[in-house]
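Example S7 (structure tokens).
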């Protein structure tokens, strides 16, 4: 199974890859973020360590153009082969 990744920053550990491949046919969004954290070698935590929930303070996530916040399944959402997950760093305000 292949999940495509788009982002407004370089995903640590992915290099120039635009996708992540899994041998399993059923993968949740949470498992994708666990894999991305693993390949980042501790440089990025997409999930809050205390709660295991997505860090929505620092990241905005969309699945096939739909915002993560609209998913009733949350991190248990089952990804399909060819899905596109977009990860954006939230801009820091200031002036």
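Recovered sequence:
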């Amino acid at each position: 199974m292949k999940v495509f990744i788009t982002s407004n920053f370089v995903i640590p550990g992915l290099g120039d890859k635009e996708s992540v491949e899994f041998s399993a046919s059923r993968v949740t969004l949470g498992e994708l973020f666990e894999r991305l954290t693993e390949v980042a070698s501790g440089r990025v935590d997409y999930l809050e360590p205390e709660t295991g929930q997505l860090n929505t303070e620092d990241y905005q996530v969309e699945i096939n153009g739909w915002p993560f916040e609209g998913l009733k399944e949350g991190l248990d959402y089952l990804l399909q082969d060819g899905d596109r997950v977009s990860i954006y760093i939230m801009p820091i305000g200031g002036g």
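Notes on this example. The CA atoms of residues 61 and 87 lie 5 Å apart.
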